[in-house]
Design goal:
The two termini are 26 Å apart. Helices cover 45% and strands 10% of the residues. It has two domains: 4-87; 95-209, Protein-Tyrosine Phosphatase, Chain A. A five-stranded mixed β-sheet has the order 1-2-5-3-4, with helices on one face. The chain has 210 residues and is of the alpha/beta class.
């Protein structure tokens, strides 16, 4: 999946540190200190999201999709950056937010508003650890499979998600599986080792359902 989140956020950490060093040289310490902190958080996320470590629990996202106060405070530079980046990318790219890959089964990106959610009151499998549960989903059945973007969930997470989805399908509920961007909805059969988490879940859903 290209560079992956670990390398991209690591690059961001290096850029922030370089900018902080520049401002420090100018004597602007009030500017350099927040940049240094943001760089440290970015480096921590880069390490935690590396495939050899893969620790999405670092950000503290709960099973109900919320972040505790300490996470918002500690990781605010990263969480706010990701939130803004997702919205900006959506505005610039103007890509379809979701795709129906089979009858009642949708894959796509993080639904920031009602317009970004399939109009069938779906049960939602959230495969992000960097974004909170959208207020749009307050009345939807919801399962959080916290996973770093561009990383695959653990086998136990996949099994749990499939069983949950099977129960919802038996109740005639549509299923919406989303990651942050909804990029790989057409590439399920050609994924490399850095499988996009929601595509992997849908792969198993297709095997069991269809």
């Amino acid at each position: 999946m290209g560079w992956g989140i670990s390398r991209l956020i690591g690059l961001k950490a290096a850029v922030l540190l370089s900018v902080a060093y520049y401002f420090h040289g100018l004597g602007a310490t009030l500017i350099s200190f927040p940049l240094i902190y943001a760089s440290m958080i970015a480096m921590l996320v880069s390490i935690a999201s590396h495939p050899a470590i893969d620790l999405p629990l670092l950000l503290g996202k709960a099973s109900d999709g919320s972040f505790p106060l300490w996470s918002w405070i500690m990781f605010s530079p990263f969480l706010l950056f990701i939130h803004m980046f997702v919205l900006l990318r959506r505005f610039v790219k103007n890509e379809p937010l979701y795709t129906e890959i089979a009858d009642g089964v949708f894959v796509g990106g993080w639904p920031s508003s009602v317009e970004h959610l399939p109009p069938c009151d779906p049960a939602v499998i959230d495969c992000t650890c960097e974004l909170p549960k959208s207020p749009t989903l307050s009345n939807n059945a919801y399962l959080c499979v916290a996973t770093w973007d561009t990383r695959a969930p653990q086998p136990s997470q996949i099994e749990s998600a499939v069983r949950w989805a099977m129960r919802k399908r038996s109740q005639n509920k549509a299923i919406y599986v989303h990651c942050a961007y909804g990029k790989n909805v057409f590439l399920i059969s050609t994924l490399d080792n850095e499988l996009c988490c929601f595509s992997l879940c849908i792969f198993f859903l297709e095997i069991l359902f269809f």
